[in-house]
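Handoff note, outgoing to incoming analyst
You'll be picking up this chain. Sequence as last confirmed:
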Amino acid sequence: MKLVYSKIKKWYNENLEIYLKNGDVLMQDKLDKFLEYIPKKGKILDIGSGTGRDVNYFIENNFDGIGIDFSEKMIDYANKNFNGKFSLMEMTALDFQNEYFNGIWASSSLFTHLTSDDIEKALLEVERILACGGVFGFIVMKKEKNDIERKNFIFNKFTKKDILKKITDIGLTSFYVSIFHAHNRDWFYVLAKKGNSPTEDGSQQGNL
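Most recent structure output, in case you need it:
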């Protein structure tokens, strides 16, 4: 594991209680929008599942939810407190069959803590294991002009143009994009499809 990832992993392992208090928020409206495009009882992978809250929500709504994370403490907490299957796994080497999932979810995870090269690797894995017609839903922090980059700790932010290009580059089509405000920041919420995409206004704006 790269040193920069070890530092991120250490933070999550040592600060589970802080995360539960300040960052562990169930964004039900975002999840419900995503689930509109997943067949009932469909298989969903949560990449960077953290405490397991989103996977638990998928299962409560009759979907087959699976979560992966690189933090042992997060996986241990999820397995003890929520429904679902939770495993330690790297985002750049997903141990699943081709086209296995109807939906893939990544809430401030895949894009947030990986280097640029590893984001590309992880996205290629997303495309590989996502079934034709499947939907990739994700949340990522919006880049602002006055942002100060953190040293020795990856916390990526993106423009709309940059994030949508990464999706296009792996052959997915974005069909819904909104901006919402949370934790004193603006975030992008994006839905993209493998194959023909539903007709939606890709410039919609949303509020939390």
